[in-house]
Every structure is written in C-alpha cells, then in structure tokens.
Design a protein that fits this description.
11 helices; mainly alpha; 3-stranded mixed beta sheet
C-alpha cells in the first residue's frame, strides 16, 4: 500500500493478552475450540438452509447470510491470534494490519445491517403475519443483503482513507492481539485527535444507533403483541430472546470500544474476545437449539448424509 511508502514502520508488534504460559494454554484451548465450533456450526447452518427447500424463507435466508458473515468475522483475527499465542514475538506487517482493520469493519458493518434486517423480519412476522410474504419478498431480502455489504464497505473505506497515509515513524507496539483503529492511531507520528474523534463518532454512532434501533424495535414488537393478547407477550419474548441475546453480545463490546476509548484501558482487548470468538460460536447454538424447525432440518440433513455415505 502507498501508506507503507510514507512510513518508517514496516510492521507492528502485538503484546497479546498475557505472558503467563498457563493462561496462554487455556486461551489456546478455549480459542481453538470456539473457532472450530463456530466454523462447523455456521457452515452447518449455511448448508442446511441452502439444501432444505422448507427453509427457503426470508428468516432463514438472513440467518444463512449472518452465518456467512460470522465465518468471516471470526476468521479475520482468530487464526493469527491462535498462531501467535506461543510465539515470543507477535508481529504483523503494515499492510497486513491495514487489511485486518478493513475486513473487521466490513464484516462488522454487514452484521449490523443484517441484525437490523432480522429484527424487521421478526416484526413483520409477529405484528403483520398476514402480509409477511408480501412485505418480506425476495426482492426486499436481496435489497437488505446488498445494502449490508454496501454499508460495510463504505463504513470501512471511509475510515481507512484517512489512516493509510498517516506517518508511522516511532513506536510500533500494539497492546492487543489484533489491529484496531483506536490503538493504531495513537502510534502515528502526528496529531490524530481529530481522526480519533472521527472514528469514535463514525463507529460509535453506528454501533449505538443500531443497538438503540434494535432495542426499540423489540420493545415495539412486545408492546404490540401485549396489546393484542396479554398472554402472547411471553411467547413473543421467548421467540425474540435469541435475537436479543445475539444483539447484546455483539453490540456490547463494540459500544465500549468506540464510545469509551482509553489509552490506558486493557479491558477492550478482553471484550474483543466476545465479538471474535464467543458471538460467532454462540450464534449457531442460539439460532439452532431455540428453533425447532432448524433442529428438524439439521436432523434431515444428517440422515441424508448418512444415507449417501452408506450408498458410497
């Protein structure tokens, strides 16, 4: 990248999460298990949705795309973090750091829009069931998908355009296990307070705004159901609980990163584990074990695979 030509720093050094060998071993087991499970779980959801005609509906279309994004979100940082755990010197090139930041924000932006689309889907399904198929048409689903990618790319490019050409001529130590914008900006050999504020406003407002919008939509759904049938609000809450769980786990760390950035805080790199490992791992569990139709579809898929294996 051109930014590397204007920088004396060709690589950045991660401090990682800990220097304790015992904790590193626990982190290795934990992160490897979560990453492998999230890869298998999200791949299984995608395969099940695409192969089962009964699941060719807007809700499962959005769920399959969420699983695809979770695969990318987890894979941007997880393999290198696991690889670096027992390395004495954890380094990443300048271009590799910029690339990692780019894809983190792309996948994060896409996931935000998809979660909003899934909340809208549940609103239509619960509050306007007779018009569900009319409103949630294939065209609207495709619009949600395209919009999510457009928002993700614009969000990421807008921030990186101001970062790639910054001069990095001094410290190259990142107190983290992955590249993130707030910590990277503090290493630039120029005043980046305006850029730090821009990043906080951009990512912070998007995160907080999306979270508030989702919370309001879920409250509106519950109030609407309660007005129609007071006893139905509990059932609606049970139906929405999986969505609410995913939203809280995903947006909680993001809002902390970008609305309360602190150069002396080490909490953000531990909270990042939620978005990088735990959320992609929990999404398949949340959306599968709380969804009877999905569980039945997975059983049908497993039965077919076993049958094909016996034939072969």
């Amino acid at each position: 990248m051109d930014g590397a030509n204007h920088s004396a720093v060709s690589e950045f050094v991660f401090l990682g999460l800990t220097d304790s060998w015992e904790i590193q071993l626990l982190l290795f087991v934990f992160s490897s298990t979560c990453y492998a499970a999230s890869m298998m779980g999200n791949s299984l959801i995608m395969l099940t949705v695409t192969s089962d005609p009964r699941l060719h509906s807007p809700m499962y279309f959005l769920l399959a795309n969420l699983s695809f994004i979770d695969l990318g979100l987890s894979s941007v940082t997880s393999p290198k973090m696991i690889y670096d755990l027992f390395r004495k010197r954890k380094v990443i090139s300048f271009s590799g750091c910029i690339t990692q930041i780019f894809f983190i924000h792309v996948t994060g932006g896409v996931e935000m829009v998809l979660l909003i689309a899934m909340a809208f889907d549940r609103y239509v399904a619960i509050c306007k069931p007779l018009h569900y198929l009319t409103i949630m048409s294939p065209r609207l689903c495709l619009y949600f998908l395209v919009s999510s990618w457009v928002v993700g790319f614009i969000h990421s490019l807008f921030q990186l355009l101001f970062v790639v050409n910054l001069p990095f001529c001094g410290p190259n130590i990142l107190d983290s296990f992955y590249c993130d914008l707030p910590r990277l900006l503090r290493l630039a050999c120029t005043n980046t307070q305006a850029l730090q504020a821009m990043v906080s406003v951009n990512s912070g407002l998007i995160s907080v705004g999306s979270f508030v919008l989702l919370v309001i939509s879920y409250i509106f759904i519950l109030v609407t159901v309660w007005k129609r049938s007071p006893g139905g609000s509990f059932k609606a809450l049970s139906t929405l609980s999986s969505h609410i769980t995913v939203v809280v786990l995903f947006f909680g760390p993001l809002m902390f990163f970008y609305t309360w950035p602190s150069p002396t805080s080490h909490l953000d790199k531990y909270l990042a584990i939620f978005d990088i490992f735990i959320t992609p791992f929990l999404n398949p569990l949340v959306y599968t074990f709380r969804n009877k139709e999905m569980k039945v579809a997975i059983m049908r898929l497993c039965t077919r695979l076993i049958h094909y294996r016996k034939i072969l």
